[in-house]
Amino acid sequence: MKYQLVSFKTCPWVQRAAIALREKGAAFDFTHIEPDNRPEWFLKISPHKKVPVLRIDDSISLFESNAIAEYLDETIAPRLAPEDAIQRAINRAWTDYIPTFASQVTGAAYAKSEDDYTAAIAKIDEPFGRLEGALEKQGSGPYFNGARYALVDAGYAPFLQRYFFLDGIRPIGKIEKYPRLNAWAKALIARPSTHSFPPGEFEQMYREQIRKRGVYLSQFVQAAQQAAE
Q1: DSSP letter string over 181-202?
Q2: Which domains does the chain carry?
């Protein structure tokens, strides 16, 4: 089959679908569009007007990253979801928590003032604490279920990566308090499938996005760029 993944370059939800494709060893093409200039052909194939969209054989369009990941897992070996039904349900429940996790962990990227930024940073401990507790059952392996990589890992990887990006712009110092979460996050970042672009190049894209957004953190991105020159 021919797979085409329609994307914004820095979209974490697209990244989740791309990770699943790479974990499957499935060849696919990226088509990047601009968030502020979504072409007419894209609007016709994306009912929610959002990315990702996975085009299959130029004839079928799948949308929403969770649905795309599950479709890929059901149709392309190796299976990433746990074989055990209970463990699979637990993984799915934690996958459903990702939007809340993402909002609380990366909310600082959208804070318009110092007060908003401080409030956003204060929210990070709750989701980090919840995941630290969930990871107590992972055993000695580096991933959510232990030694075996799963769809739930693919779902969290983009947002943990962005936490580290934000921490690099202005130190947050939260994840160090959660040793299991910190180790899991670093294992996900180290996995080649996480990356659609060279890591340094992608971090620079993310920083530029923050700068253009004109939010509170943008002033620190500019300072960092000037210091590097």
Answers
A1: HHHHHHHHHHSGGG-SS-HHHH
A2: 3-75 (3.40.30.10), 85-225 (1.20.1050.10)
